[in-house]
Amino acid sequence: MSGNDSTVTGACNCGAFSLTIPQQTGMALCHCTSCRKSGGSVSSANFSINPKDMKCDGPEPSKYVAKGSSGNDVTRAFCGTCGSNLWTAVADPNLIFVKAGLFPPGSVPSPNTHLFAKNMEDWEIVHEGAERIETQ
Ligand SMILES: [Zn+2]
Ligand SMILES: [Zn+2]
């Protein structure tokens, strides 16, 4: 992360974890059943970033490893104290999905992708200009 880029800092509910990432220009809403269950909402809002670009202050996060639809391990990191989802790591070591809801209101751009759109509820809206991907 270069010192000149603008960054945004978020935190979990209890403040044990503080995350700083480059300001994002897009966001993906994931409607997969794993995201639904882990977040308790019908979709999760994610920033796709290189873990090298994330600065995380806090203890070692709690982790839950599940099989993704690809058959590969998907590791969900969350705060062991307050339960806030922090990020999801996948097989690609250069990619993590950081939870957009950790960051302050006003800092989250509109979605450019809907993942697992086949799971969307009838009333959910595909945002204008966003790509709808039925599975991953
Ligand atoms: Zn916390
Ligand atoms: Zn998902």
Automatic annotation (TrEMBL):
Record GO terms (molecular function): carbon-sulfur lyase activity; metal ion binding
Keywords per UniProt: Lyase, Metal-binding, Zinc
Coiled coil: none
Signal peptide feature range: none
Pfam families with a match to the protein in the record: GFA
Gene3D superfamilies (alphabetical): glutathione-dependent formaldehyde- activating enzyme (gfa)
Domain of life: Eukaryota
Name assigned to this protein: CENP-V/GFA domain-containing protein
Protein source organism: Kwoniella heveanensis BCC8398
Lineage: Eukaryota, Fungi, Dikarya, Basidiomycota, Agaricomycotina
